[in-house]
Amino acid sequence: MRILVDGNISAARGIFDPHGEVIQMDGRQIRRDHLATVDALIIRSVTRVDAELLNHTPVRFVGTTTIGTDHLDIAWLEKSGITWASAPGCNADSAAQYTLAMIWLACERLGFELSGRRVGIVGKGNVGSRVMRLLQILGAHTVANDPPLSDHGEPGLVSLEEVLRQEIVSLHVPLIPRGPYPTHHLLNARRLAQLRPGALLVNTARGDVVDGPALKQRLFSGQLAAALDVWPHEPGVEAELVEATTVATPHVAGYSDDGKYNGARQIYRAFCYWSGHAERLLPPVPGGTRRLRIAPQRDALSQALEAACFVGRHDQAMRDLAQLPPAGRPQEFDRLRREYPARRDFYAWLLEGVVPEEEKRLAQLGFSIAKTPADK
Q1: What is the topology classification, in CATH, of domain 290-369?
Q2: Residues recognised as catalytic
Q3: Would you identify the CATH topology of the domain 92-248?
Q4: pLDDT at 153 exceeding the cut of 90
């Protein structure tokens, strides 16, 4: 069996090697000619999978190691008898923790405390529900909107209009172009105008959930601030939009080692079910425990978020990207994602030197706390 895998899925070779010949290449460069002798295709969101790519190829299994499926023509795949699988929830912890780190840094830069702020969550699924819990631990007041969940009887949800009245609005919906719950340009010019003056808009979902030109206009008018991890028309990021944001990162919210590995494992299980191959026992996420000694003169949570998510580092990288000529920005955007440093979820971080009054909050967020000699 021949298995073509996006080269950015770092865990794939070790996982799929025993089941056939694994070929790896840049996901954006995959074309029909590359699939002439391929049985299974393992990709990320940068590869559009439809009739143009797969027609008249032997590919009969497509797995995307992502939560979203907007890059798959699912109707055509199913009509053509091609099995497909995605990885819902695989990087939900990663994306939620990174979203928190983005919000925290944006609040620092805007000069206000997160505690006591009113936050609206658009999409209370795997990621949105986790973001709500993390924000509540830090003292924020949260409300959420999610029409599909509301229609299925989920209690406590509010209207989109109510969410848009909050001081911080965070987006966590898939990109759906049509149907009963479309999200393409969900925040169009009219809805962006409903955001309160000075609100912070956070988007770690998909870039085209927001109308880019309308957003840019609101940002330049000073009526709105934004922390963006996703962008309209990626990878061709618009320099002016980057420069107008409070925090900018290159679509890496779910890019922790844990999230990537979980996605690969989920697709591996689906692949084995499809192919009839016996599943191997896979090793845990590589990387071990990370240690961080908290400096007493700085806020402990700021230090922990900076170490675990390093949002500021990639914000600067995006500022540098914005200075490049337009033709160079897509390549740099992809490079930042391809060469993203190793990152572990909060549980893999052991914090040392935490003062007792900070221990509970950090532990509730998911960090591990080193015991002092007196505790042992």
Answers
A1: Ribosomal Protein S8; Chain: A, domain 1 (3.30.1370)
A2: 206, 234, 251
A3: Rossmann fold (3.40.50)
A4: yes
